[in-house]
Design brief:
The complex is a heterotetramer, with two copies of chain A (329 residues) and two copies of chain C (361 residues).
Chain A lengths: L3 E4 L1 H15 L3 E5 L15 H5 L4 E3 L4 H13 L3 E5 L10 H8 L2 H4 L9 E6 L14 H5 L5 E3 L4 H13 L4 E6 L8 E4 L11 E4 L4 E5 L3 H14 L4 E5 L2 E3 L3 H11 L2 E8 L4 H12 L9 E5 L10 H4 L3 H13 L2
Chain C lengths: L4 E5 L1 E2 L19 H26 L13 H8 L7 E3 L5 H6 L4 H8 L25 H15 L6 E6 L6 H12 L4 E7 L2 E2 L2 E2 L19 E6 L3 H16 L5 E6 L18 H8 L3 H11 L5 H28 L6 H4 L10 H10 L3
The chains are: A alpha/beta (329), C alpha/beta (361).
The structure holds thiamine diphosphate (2 copies) and magnesium ion (2 copies).
Chain lengths: 329, 329, 361, 361
Amino acid sequence: MSDTKILTLIEAVTAALDHEMGLDKEIVLMGEDVGKNGGVFRATDGLQQKYGDERVMDTPLAEAMIAGLSVGMAAQGMKPVPEIQFMGFVFPAFNQIATAAARMRNRTRGRLTMPITFRMPYGGGIHAPEHHSESTEALFAHIPGLRVLIPSNPTRAYGLLLASLRSPDPILFLEPKRVYRMVKHEVEMNGVALPLDKCFVDREGDDITLISWGAMMHETLLAADQLAKDGVSVEVIDVATVAPMDMETIFTSVRKTGRCVVVQEAPRAGGLGSEIAAEIAEHELMSLIAPIGRVAGYDTIMPYAKMEMQYMPSVERVVEEAQKVLKYV
Amino acid sequence: MSDTKILTLIEAVTAALDHEMGLDKEIVLMGEDVGKNGGVFRATDGLQQKYGDERVMDTPLAEAMIAGLSVGMAAQGMKPVPEIQFMGFVFPAFNQIATAAARMRNRTRGRLTMPITFRMPYGGGIHAPEHHSESTEALFAHIPGLRVLIPSNPTRAYGLLLASLRSPDPILFLEPKRVYRMVKHEVEMNGVALPLDKCFVDREGDDITLISWGAMMHETLLAADQLAKDGVSVEVIDVATVAPMDMETIFTSVRKTGRCVVVQEAPRAGGLGSEIAAEIAEHELMSLIAPIGRVAGYDTIMPYAKMEMQYMPSVERVVEEAQKVLKYV
Amino acid sequence: MRKSISFEINHLQYLDESAKPANDLPEFAKDTDKLVELYDRMQFLRAMDKRAVGLQRIGKMRTYPAALGQEAVGIGAGLALKDTDVLVPYYRGTGMMLSHGIKPHEILLYWGGDERGADYKDPIAAQDFPVAVPIATQILHAAGVATAIKLRGEKRAVMTEIGEGGTSEGEFYEALNVAGVWNLPFVCIVNNNQWAISVPSENQTKAESYAQKAIAAGMDTLQVDGNDIIAVHDASVKAMEKARNGGGPTLIEAICYRLCDHTTADDASRYHDQKVHDKAWEVEPVKRLEDYLKSLGVLDDKAIEAMAKDNKANVEKEVEMYFDILNNQPQPPEAMFDYLYAEVPEKTKPQREEAIRRGAK
Amino acid sequence: MRKSISFEINHLQYLDESAKPANDLPEFAKDTDKLVELYDRMQFLRAMDKRAVGLQRIGKMRTYPAALGQEAVGIGAGLALKDTDVLVPYYRGTGMMLSHGIKPHEILLYWGGDERGADYKDPIAAQDFPVAVPIATQILHAAGVATAIKLRGEKRAVMTEIGEGGTSEGEFYEALNVAGVWNLPFVCIVNNNQWAISVPSENQTKAESYAQKAIAAGMDTLQVDGNDIIAVHDASVKAMEKARNGGGPTLIEAICYRLCDHTTADDASRYHDQKVHDKAWEVEPVKRLEDYLKSLGVLDDKAIEAMAKDNKANVEKEVEMYFDILNNQPQPPEAMFDYLYAEVPEKTKPQREEAIRRGAK
Ligand SMILES: Cc1ncc(C[n+]2csc(CCOP(=O)(O)OP(=O)(O)O)c2C)c(N)n1
Ligand SMILES: Cc1ncc(C[n+]2csc(CCOP(=O)(O)OP(=O)(O)O)c2C)c(N)n1
Ligand SMILES: [Mg+2]
Ligand SMILES: [Mg+2]
């Protein structure tokens, strides 16, 4: 019998790390301020005290280094869990992630593997400074060899992070920081991982499919509530495992509803919403009754705090887009 | 009266650089081996001799540095033209391109502008070593603030590079290295730039639209030839200015043909083909008679030279996909 | 056979920990008006930081990075800039920015979450960079500005700044290397305040100084007491002058202590050793110069209080300008689009229209 | 007041330019069998490189980077690795790779465009990295391997290598910095062959040595004559031994000269100064040791020719294995997919099927 805890998303992250570190001695957390300070968001709070400074290591300030060290450690059979303090600071590590971590297994024909979980908070909505609020998951989802996971709530954070920590593949685990403390879930502390390659159907319905991931699941579910009040039967999908993506769950839903709207916080052009729409347009075009709607961040730079909320897709925008798609005959 | 020269794509690049350097003293070429060696592909051949080593500068070996210096020089009103030796080595510069070059105008409300043309050879097909053959244009096309241009032939290389060098915006100018010496064009040496934001309709037709860019235009045009032999009337679009993308030209074509196939060399998931398909599925769904076909590189890492041609989309694949789309009723 | 190679790094201090001259003072420091000016500016910076942190506490400011304890670094170095020089600051560079024509309310606007805070209106600052948040990127920008200056044969120089933690980023080193080999008019100040958020300097590098990082680039370098503004200013003025005259780049490590939280989003008590912290207060820079000026009889408590009152009032004026622009003259929705490219791309125009339609939030 | 800090970098040479002992030889070098072994391996490397370049000229090899003139660096350092140590090579690291169990035909396969060339079959090399093409990335991998070794408390060490041009990349410096502060069992060889493709060393950095780059990281460092394999081997053995025993990291700059084109895709005559090039031939490493061994009477022309014949035959055997695998045992199409993830993702399965259907090309 496993116990249950009421956790925020960030507490669920800590709980999953704690659980797995207890079981697997090869897991080593590392990053800027992850030790004594417990991470700037406190995701690793208390873990250095518990596991020592050889399992939770503060690094010098250099993201390429954090990623590059992880590659070397992984090649030795360790399971590094690097934290990038904010996703806006992952770019110095891009070279290591794209040219080394994502490729090492393939380029050695499986000889050296890369069980690395790159954790990082991402997305907007907390009025943080410049470069702290972007959603750039699509940049990584386009890189073969990586997996990209995005939990939208505490339960999924727990289960998907466990899955990451057990996966032999390199993973970007993107934590929607706006949700860090937004909701609490009763999470079963049972150490059970969620699948790494399955979308979640969060609500079943027949009229329209709303598809999203990460923090935007919040707006999407609220929009579904509103639409439901008007008698619309909404199906809601949390993509969660955004790369490689589970298309079957999405296709099944679209075959049923014939209408869909994809909601993303990232800029519209070239985002994951485009990939989803393209896949549907190729494989399920004839299931569609209406054009595929996309609600997305604008194709401009996330404004600073003062105008941030004008940029972020709102419940209202999702509802409007859904209504447009629903009206289509 | 301007004269005409028969040029390869790479010669057209050199010619455009030469032309504009003669007119605009602020243009400075820089990069690894661009000076005495004239670039590893010889794109800058002879230019250091002609303009001196303060206009064509060999840099130390560091891509972040090349990009970061360019940002500083641009802020001083210069027009740096950094060469990244191969696109596979642009990742160390990702941070500077994404967080500085693409944003500086916006973050200073237009005070500091970034007229930088980042040139780099890209794409596969020349049996080069590891990391020398990838097509990662989608990673940059998703970054607001950048323009991404890809010439498919000598004429366009000349006209689009002139446009880049005259643009106040930061531009990634991606040169399909497989085409460097593949075809020759009679290019008018008239110093006339092509538009930065328009697709080219290379062939007009009514039955199907084939959409591509860069080196794959070659396969696409050959496929169009083959299809034409079977009596298919093919419209062919060279997207060329891939970000921000000119959708109108594409929509107009799809409205006419009702069928389309996008051809890209890059991995399929999250490529520009997805963006094009998504836009069509949103705005022109009801013009479509058939699902949108995509021919793309596989979602895996570009194999080394020995298997490279198994990865690259072939004329045969384009023709087959077009036939599938054409058969659809 | 080749010989072995040797290097030496000097440490500069004029006023010692007890505010007594430890060395012959440089020429400028014999001018007490100049010293009072330096003091006044440090005082202003401290007052402004205090107010900004206070604003954050009451929800009228976003995350703000104060420079408490580091005033001598920012002001001492910043005042070495001439009008024609260029500043490429980092996020804790308020001292330098104020010293080069950037207005307090502009700095407040930036941290208050408004892009206009980086659109510097003073012509002196027209070429200066906005603060760099992605650590170490600015050092390359400074090298790029210096490259342009050098290529044009101008007698100007660039100053940039970085924290000691930031020196671990590769881009820092790439910038020093090119500044060295191209002999650029470039001066880089390392604000060694002992902490990179929670990571103490000894966990950042095994180098016994940050000055020695420049040896890797074959570049001139020295260490100064960052709590001694006379030392900081002297080293900075000389380095900038040398840079302007073709003498090449210099790195200056200024050793001080971060007496505040990393930013308002941080809680240093989680990791600070309170005793070390308290000890650092004993050698802090504003007090040091104050004591020296008092010992000379140039300032007394009354004069100091009067200056403090003035500075507070001046800060208040700037805070009002900040509020006025932020709240009474908000940017229109289309501002999100209008500065990204020289012209709004066709594809984005409908989005711009939508943003305008939806209006402010 | 703080004192100034000073540093010194030593230069190591045992055999001078005329192949005479310039210093007391280290113990191992008194064993002439050992010296003959070093010579033999350098000779093999040179023969293999020559053959590979020849294969490229006739279209049976892709771009290949020879190590002509740099044999003492690769072999001298590589033979300092024990079986349990780990090698993280760069693309010109053939010498080191051969010294640590990686097979010549594997190296040929890699450069021939077949991924299996990085799937090293010898257990000694099972943990070694494939060559790094993106410059300087490997130095961080080496630091990461060293981190794992250190965390596990093992008595092993890592060796990695980089060209002098590559030291300008920030990741190089980031690796040194962490190796220093974490006291990692890490040895980095800088192959200073004077050229980064067409860019000469003096345009790469103003540092008067590459050894001094390590001063920035507070790391032990020295310079050796890279044409003197006794110096290279001695320094490497000592550095590795120190690293295995908790003594921390070392940087070794080995000064030599690239006597070949950068790769088979390059034409050095476009930028080389032929006179400098010719002079470099006078001090090249294989000849140096050969002359010394001749002067000792250990080798004569006949013995040398016999060794050359053997080595050529051995190269030939490996070339045959290379051809056999490359041409007679091609990878199936699905190999493109089967090593990317632990399991082929659902979404990619149809692509895999398509590739199989389309078959080989
Ligand atoms: C590339 C990058 N990585 C991480 C961060 C997050 N971050 C902001 S400040 C800071 C510590 C900086 O310390 P230091 O360089 O010593 O400067 P200080 O803040 O002490 O002045 C970190 C890690 C960032 N802004 N940029
Ligand atoms: C990140 C990156 N940038 C550029 C290149 C292209 N390139 C390959 S080798 C080389 C020169 C390297 O010179 P050096 O480091 O001195 O090593 P050497 O080849 O002389 O051994 C360059 C620029 C690359 N492989 N990786
Ligand atoms: Mg600091
Ligand atoms: Mg070299």
